[in-house]
Amino acid sequence: MAANGCPVPKGLVRIVLRIDLLTGCAVSLALACGLATSPVQAQDLQNRPVAPPVQDPPVANASTATPAEDQVQFSSTALEYNTNTDIVTATGEVRMFRQGSRLRADKVVWNRKTGKVVATGNIAVTNPEGDIAYGDEINLTDSLKDGVVDNMLVVLEQGGRLAAEQGTRDADGTVNLKTAAYTPCGVTNSAGCPKEPTWKITAVRVTYRPERKRIFYKGARLHLFGLPSLPLPEFSNPVGGGSDSGLLSPNGGYSRVNGVEVSVPYYWKLAPNQGLVITPHIYSSVLPMAQVDYSALNSKGAFKVRAYATESRRSDDLATADPTDTSMAFRGYIDGVGRYQLSPNWTASGSLRLTTDRTFLRRYDISRDDRLRTTASLERIDDSSYFSLSGWYAQTLRVADRQGDQPIALPEIDYRKRFDDGLVGGRFQLQLNTLALTRTDGQDTQRAFASLQWDLRRFTNWGQEVTFTAFARGDLYNTNDTLATTNISYRGLEGFHQRAIGAVAVDVKWPFIGTFLGGTQRFTPRVQFVAAPKVANITLPNEDSRAVDLDDTNLFSLNRFAGYDRFEDSSRVTYGGEWALDLPGISFTTNVGQSYRLDLRPTILPDGTGLSDRFSDIVGRSELRFRDFVSIVHRYRLDKDGFAIRRNELDATIGSRATYVLVGYLKLNRNIDASIEDLRDREEVRVAGRVQFARFWSAFGSGVVDLTNASEDPLSRSDGFTPIRHRIGIQYEDDCLRLGGTWRRTYNDTGDARKGNSFLLTLAFTNLGR
């Protein structure tokens, strides 16, 4: 071990031993050995044992006169001036300052006649940009802006460092280096001991231009993990957080359908706030694909657009197990998003997602979404009101869906206003909403409504929290082409129809708080009474209330239908309780509840929703947290008759940010008629995790398995254990390098998006195409 506690480098041990063995070596041989090692010393990237020069703090009551522009300020322990030669010699912690340039050295000899400055011993020079240069000897002009440095080390203000056998600095700040090395990586470990950087570039000549924040290389080679170096062409790279035109980090991969893939992005800096990236994707089995990314930012907001384009064979027959390919066709995808803050209250935003066919995104592993939405929105938000004018278009990628059945919403107008009632301290919320849905080959619906809700929240002397609610709404619908909707319960009646809705509710919570097991527990029973008269539901179309499912989030809702097209017209009592325990580092929360319908009239809620009988199913949720290490959330729904599990959902996260495992399990066993809604019974498990097995190395993986069988869903093709997809990978990532490999496998064929293996390689260097 060295004196400073850091281990002695193995190379140094070998040098010492060799000197011992060659004690009798001739002087000439010793000099030759010293010369042979000089290039290594000349590229020393380690820190130098001297602090950079710092401007002296102002002295109290000192003169505030500003020095002349060409005046050099300096200080030292000792100073000699030869009047005959006009040479000034300063020794002992010498510091010189001029126009933002600063120098520190053990000795400085200044020839006032020639303007030459020679500094030796623990030299550190800082330029106005903040870059620091270290050296053994430096020859400068008296402007301190240009000169020659031996054994030079430059620590850049933007990050990274340059080392060279010799370097020169011009008056404009340009640094020219011979036999040089560059790295943005750290050169010390966590203990502060020297270490070899993860990667570095050595070159015959290097030029650093501070005004462009860019480094230029000639005769360069790349050294990675100390492995044999790789020759590089003449190139340049930016330093720091800026950007400039040039090649980005390449990526590579392999897939069964497309073959070997290589992509090399090129970035064009169009302006300080605009950039364009063009990425050619080259495949061994299919034609190349072009990818274009454009982004722009201004004082109001930003937007970005990504587009893909290629030509390949695709399958139009998606339902056949072994489909045939069509002739060559143009295929592509465009994805854009933007948001602009027009004023403190007004915001405009939108998104664009369109593709040429249903399998393009999966085949080229761009996305696995089964529906693409294009949206546009104009919003105004202040302290008490909200206004939105929006629209959207949906493109389906599902095999069995018809595009003509997908709605186009244009426009949807929503306005909400909150204000106090001024009498008893309650609060009103007014809502005005209108929506127009158009289909190219289906039913069209227009809807408008106005609603008013009043809420009053009070606390009794015994600690109960009581909330009174009154709600009223009036609807107007117009429906056309209802016969195009195959599900009768979704159609409604043709033409104009209206509806009036009313409801009142009282919600009571009574929290009890006390100590338990050295912590705090809280038990809160809750009961809610809702009264609502019968309203028209079936006569109106159902566009946004189709997926009905009772869970802990909507148990105490005034309307347990999603959306606005259906309203739960029943009088009921809902009851439940919540228990929470907080211990040092541990928290646990659980709630459970059920409702009972007071009236006897038939309900429109279908079997399987948990709400079709007078007693609802029992729903609950539990959550356990242990510091930031464990998080387990369990949601469930129990059949009220036999306590059969109708919904069982578990999400668990265990571990730290570096090493963790995520498990998700879902089982829906609701026995819902397939004609009622789209969501079918299903069982699946999701697993993901990451293990950091070294400081910078980690392995990761994830997978999805379909556990559904024929008894749960007769239409499912799963045999009870059918993998959907998985991925496994390994990654190295430190402060200046990211290197990884991933293996993915999909198990389902959809047209020309075939199942099989794919491999992805990633390599990214800090300041080199990143």
UniProtKB/TrEMBL annotation:
Q: Where in the cell is it found?
A: Cell outer membrane
Give the InterPro entries listed for this entry: LipoPS_assembly_LptD, LptD, LptD_C
Ranges for domain LptD C-terminal come to 330-697
So which residues are the signal peptide here?
1-42
Chain intervals for the UniProt region annotation (Disordered)? 48-68
| Keywords per UniProt | Cell outer membrane, Membrane, Signal
Q: Where are the transmembrane segments?
A: none
State one Pfam family annotation: LptD
Please describe the quaternary structure of this protein: Component of the lipopolysaccharide transport and assembly complex.
In terms of PANTHER family, this protein maps to: LPS-ASSEMBLY PROTEIN, LPS-ASSEMBLY PROTEIN LPTD
What does this protein do, in the record's words?
Involved in the assembly of lipopolysaccharide (LPS) at the surface of the outer membrane.
Q: Which family does it belong to?
A: Belongs to the LptD family.
Name-wise, this protein is LPS-assembly protein LptD
Q: Which organism is it from?
A: Sphingomonas albertensis
Q: Which gene encodes it?
A: lptD
